[in-house]
Amino acid sequence: MLKLSLVAWLIFSLAWRTTPTACRQTNAPQSVQEMLAEQLQSYMDTKARPCENFYQYACGNWQIQQQEQHSLRDRDWTRDRQRYQGQLLPTDTLGLIDHSVNRRLELLLRRKNESSSESDSSILEQMRLYYRSCKRLKPYNLKKYLQLLPPSNSTQWPSVGRGWRPEQFDWITTLGRLRLHGLNGVLLREEVLPRWDDSRNYSIYVNKPSRQETQPTGEGAMIELLLDIGQTKRTANALARQVDDFERKLHRLQELEDDEGPREMQLGYLDSYLPQLRWLSFMRQVRIDSELDLRSTLIIENIPYLRALSDLVESESPDTVCSYIMLKWLAFLKQQGPADISRGECVAALRRAMPLASSWLVGQQFSDPESESYVRSLFQRLKVRFGQILAENRMRLSPPLVHILQQKLHAVRLQMGFFQPDEMEDVEQYHVRVDLSGHSFYGNQLVLLRQRVEANHDLLYINVTNLANSTGSNLSYLSESWEASNSSPLYVRPRNLVLVPHGLLQLPIWHRNISALQQHAVMGFVLAHELAHGFDMSGMDYDALGNIMGPVEEIGASRQFRQGLQCLQQQMATGSKWIDEKLADFVALRLAYETFFGVRDKREPRDPLMPQFSQRQLFFISFAQFFCGRTPVLSPRSQSEAHLKHAADELRVMQTLANFEEFSREFGCDKKAKMQASQRCRIW
Ligand SMILES: [Zn+2]
Questions:
Q1: How far is CA 127 from CA 281, 354, 459, in A?
Q2: CA 648 – ligand 1 centroid, Å
Q3: Residues with CB under 5 A from ligand 1 (ion)
Q4: Is the pLDDT of residue 644 over 60?
Q5: Which residue has the higher pLDDT, 640 or 541?
Q6: Beta bridge pairs of residue 204
Q7: What is the pLDDT of residue 295?
Q8: Are strands 297-300 and 202-207 parallel, antiparallel or unpaired?
Q9: Which Pfam families match (predicted)?
Q10: Which of 309, 364, 407, 634 lies deepest, with the highest CB count within 10 Å?
Q11: Which domains does the chain carry?
């Protein structure tokens, strides 16, 4: 993923109006290129030295420019000045893009009877119901969910009302019930994914939660949630302490080795192999409307963890375990819902709750066949150049291995938008079953969450032979995740697919009249980054068919590969713990650059709009400006995440450029300059 954090801060009364389509122009219209040239220079802090801190040089004035644009043009500015200076101003380029997508959707949702066909209007009508129910909220009250969905039919939650019956509480049943409503990664993980050995078919995978998911929440955050649902301070303090203690014990279970390895088992066998887990009780909740087939199989990993988990949970008091599950459930619902009750937040929540419908609507609004064919041909040229790089074989792999990699590269496709026109029928079918109301936000939210999980489990029974005729990308298994709810592009490993949401095709990222240089430096980089994920440490596991049978071990045997990897690991400084992201950035910058300039050394004429820079310098500035962002305001709540993310973006730009020899040559950086890595890493 290009964007690590999915939470974008969006606000509506604030508009992104530097686009040339803004309608209030009275002077002679500026060309897109003139406008972008002006903008590029206005973001720069030319007092900074490019060889010392290129991020500051390229982005130093971004924040000032953004604020000025808003204060000059936005009438609501004065009224909401406080909020703009706070969290809600878009923090970066992708934030701006999603802000503008949401704004367009919001206008559509408020307008009536615009839709042409009947099926269009029924999906749109559902979206309007959700949106209206959200707008009617005052305030977002998490306690309502607890009233709507108790842990089982025979007990209430420990903190709500008087109906708590600890003797009736059964953790695995409750977990299954909440799993059906979207909760996952609490105590364990259960999901339907493409099979590792046959990616067209699906299987249930059961595993321990990720390390991130068992990371203790901290008493402060728990107390905040408990106060939200009306607990007294005293009770909240005591309960948070109890749960915190449990979370720490739970997190320690991560240390257990998986000495049994992943295994595929029939449901019936698992029940006798690991009786303490009582897996059937869980599954009966998830498949509540159908009979369980005990001969059906699932793939189970980390059995020692699951065994220890059952022991731990049984030894704790039901109060603690149930409160832990409840707090995790509340945190999940809080994330899903609107951050505050504003028009913008209701659209953002709508995109999370109805990703499929929103993606359909975004496609209708932003799809532009002409731009799409430009982007496709750009992608094709990047692939050709990557093919040449593979053929150069820097890692000295054997010819059959190079051939396997070339085959995989050949298989990688680009898709615009989350689904294809011929999958439209499925989207309609999906929404026919949804029953929403304009007056019940909490009910709607639960209905939509449940439908996603059910649809996901229905994939276990799809008929693969029918699919063979479909040109569809078969991405429905992603519908449970958030991928469709924002405009960040992504790489889908089991499908060998680079997915570019339609919303991304707008300024400041894309316009069909921007210069070829800018197209390569921004969209070219974005596409190359996703393409490179097919060949990073996790991507290489997947072969040309999307099965986890890639030649990882064989490639790992190459000395050159191991050296490259070691070099990358040495550069893993603060804020960038994702080696795959670093690898993708390094590969992508080179790929986009070489695709545009070619590999030979030739001088290009300077851009008449910005004669002070060489073409190559402009390329690096444009690339860096994609990552410009706001330095977050210090506030106790957002501090850590927003700051880390900003620091990570800054570091990304600096490290990626410092690793590319052409950069230091072009800016004349000397050997000791900060923007020149002492050792340059290269894998491909
Ligand atoms: Zn990425």
A1: 34, 8, 24
A2: 13
A3: 1, 581, 584
A4: yes
A5: 541
A6: 192, 298
A7: 94
A8: parallel
A9: Peptidase_M13 (PF01431), Peptidase_M13_N (PF05649)
A10: 309
A11: 142-336 (1.10.1380.10), 367-418+483-667 (3.40.390.10)
